Amino acid sequence: MAIFSLRTAASFKNQAFYIYKAAVHYGFECEDKDLAERMNFPKERWDRVIVLAPLWPRYIFDSVRLAAPWVAGSFTLYGPVDGPYTQNVQIEQVLKNLQVVTTSRFCYDCMTRSGVNVRGVVYHGIDHSEFEFEDLPRYDRPRKLREQHPGKTIYFSNVNPLHRKGLPHLAEALKVLSEKRRGEWIFYLHTGRGKALKLCPDLEKIPDLVIEDAYNTLPFRQIALKTLACDHFVWPSLLEGFGLPVLEAAAAGRSIICLDVEPMNEIVGPSEAWLFPSKGIREERWEGPGCLAQLHEYESLSLAEAMMEAMDHPKESREKGLKAYERSKEFDYRKVYEPLVKGEV
Question: How far is CA 127 from the centre of its chain?
Fold first, then answer.
């Protein structure tokens, strides 16, 4: 078996490695490769090939071109999509001859609207051992933050500085919190400072906001430690193919604040998270990916109110975090990827 990933995003590389580990766990001989690297084809066919990539036309064609389904007994394309396709009739002909699996019911519905026959949904997985830390000085961020901000509520978010990830909405919500609850909280924002300030020029002026300029530069374990160190994980995103940071926060046992829409509410419900409402879908035509992106718009005030609700009910927040952790066990990488690596989906 061969497992390929086709994108530089750390989340794709991480999930490809989990699929590889699941395959090895179930006794398969397996290779894990990056399609951007030089590759030697086997002398005989691979019995199975799984390619993890966004299900956008350009990535699909690259997956077929680089991973060569004609040297595979079985070829599966696995990944998320941001909306129904808007172009390229050829893509449907390609997909008819391949096995397509996607990451959420939301993605399944988008692909189905495009006329693609999707074999099924396989959620992304998590390795809970990534959130277990030894009692060593290099892992003492949780203790340090508690000592540094006694009595304050600690929020954290790991946000790619893009509009669709909700950074402008988050900035407006934090302004509301500054007006209403100044001095009661601290917010750590893990992002890319330069791009974030281009998108939200006033971001640095928000009191009690700490911008950590390290996006896509830290090992996953450091992100996990940052997640563990907060009281509440805030996910302001308007559009997700799965919502991996929400699952990661659940695996860390944190109180989660996110939109009450698919696919986020496929991971956590009202008993596991502080959910706030969307006011409807705004479609954007994305020419590069070739899809009609489905952005769930919402009022920044709704996000601010959910954050204050979580702050005002610490006991309930802790209970939601515990329930989120229990829910996250359903996403253990060996469990979710078993049908994928065994070819049962």
Answer: 14
At 22, is the pLDDT very low, low, confident or very high (cuts 50, 70, 90)? very high
Angle of helix 314-328 relative to helix 300-312, nearest 10 degrees, comes to: 100
Q: What are phi and psi of 286, to 5 degrees?
A: -100, 105
Work out the number of other CB atoms within 10 angstroms of the CB of residue 147.
9
Give phi and psi for 86, each to the nearest 5.
-120, -5
- How many angstroms from the chain centroid is the CA of residue 273? 16
CA 123 remoteness from chain centre: 11
CA distance 119 to 299: 36
- According to CATH, the superfamily of the domain at 128-331 is Glycogen Phosphorylase B; (3.40.50.2000)
In this predicted model, what pLDDT tens digit does every residue of 55-79 receive, in sequence order?
988 888 888 888 888 788 889 999 9
Q: According to the 3-state scheme, what is the secondary structure of the chain? A: CEEEECCCCHHHHHHHHHHHHHHHHCCCCCEEEECCCCCCCCCCCECCEEEECCCCHHHHHHHHHHHCHHHECCEEEEECCCCCECCCCHHHHHHHCCEEEECCHHHHHHHHHCCCCCCEECCCCECHHHHCCCCCHHHCHHHHHHHHCCCCEEEEEECCCCHHHCHHHHHHHHHHHHHHHCCCEEEEEEECHHHHHHHCCCHHHCCCEEEEECCCCCCHHHHHHHHHCCCEEECCCCCCCCCHHHHHHHHCCCEEEEECCCCHHHHCCCCCEEEECCCEEEEEEECCCCEEEEEEECCHHHHHHHHHHHHHCHHHHHHHHHHHHHHHHHHEHHHHCHHHHCCCC
Domain locations along the chain: 2-126+333-341, 128-331
Class of domain 2-126+333-341: alpha beta
Pseudo-torsion of CA 53, 281, 116, 69, nearest 10°?
Answer: -10
Handedness of CA 320, 325, 328, 329 (dihedral sign): negative
User: Is the pLDDT score of 89 beyond 60?
Assistant: no
Kindly report the number of other CB atoms within 10 A of residue 250's CB atom. Answer: 28
